[in-house]
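Quick log. Single chain, no ligands specified.
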Amino acid sequence: MYAFNYHKPTSLAEVQSLLAKAEDGKLLAGGHTYIPTLKQRLAQPSDVIDLSGVAELKGIEEEAGGVTIGAMTTHGQIARSEIVRRVIPGLAGMAAVVGDPQVRNRGTMGGALANNDPASDYPGAVIGLAATIRTDKREIAGDDFITGMFETALEEDEIIRAIHFPRPKRSAYEKFRNPASRYALVGSFVADLESGPRVVITGAGPCAFRWTDAEQALASNFTSDAVASLRADPTDLNSDLHASAEYRAHLITVITKRAVAKLG
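-> predicted structure:
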């Protein structure tokens, strides 16, 4: 690990000031990706700014019929939240299967979204529920937030403050996990919105994407049978030592059927 200046501010204003002054400042949320990156000397920041002491970035509240979650709220807090479990149980269920207990009690929603790992779970909910990402500069529509593998619409010095999720009619998440990392080889978030069904696939491709064939099938028949005969195109899917593109394409159908069945 290279030497750097460590800061633990207690307000968003202090974070912004530290970022502006640093030659190459980086934000630290839960640390599950960035700390290993530092330990392997794959990054050499001048300053690391720990967000864990910023209370205004934490918390869950019911707002405008939906749920607003602070960026530094942990997965475990989301999974256990009475508000989330009542208003959007599909989102609480997603948080409950992120990593393992240690990860869930340290990792944060904002950190996971800013990192945008291809196998991360939350992009499925952000797109599937047409969420809004609130930063210290603006609001970003969930449909516009993910721009590529490990890439988002965030600017270099932009900080996620909170994420607002509108309440769906119903939603559910299912994933086929890597047994070691618990990351999704394939995950499927299914939501029934006022505008119609949304099906968002995570883990299978370079970034989360909507499976429009399944959405069209569910629009006329919201049952698992409606997607049973569909087959995803493996052309642009990930292929690695964990699973081939063809296997992931098969899993997309299987996992989406299971997610829809939860809403039966």
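The chain has three domains: 5-50, 58-165, 170-262.
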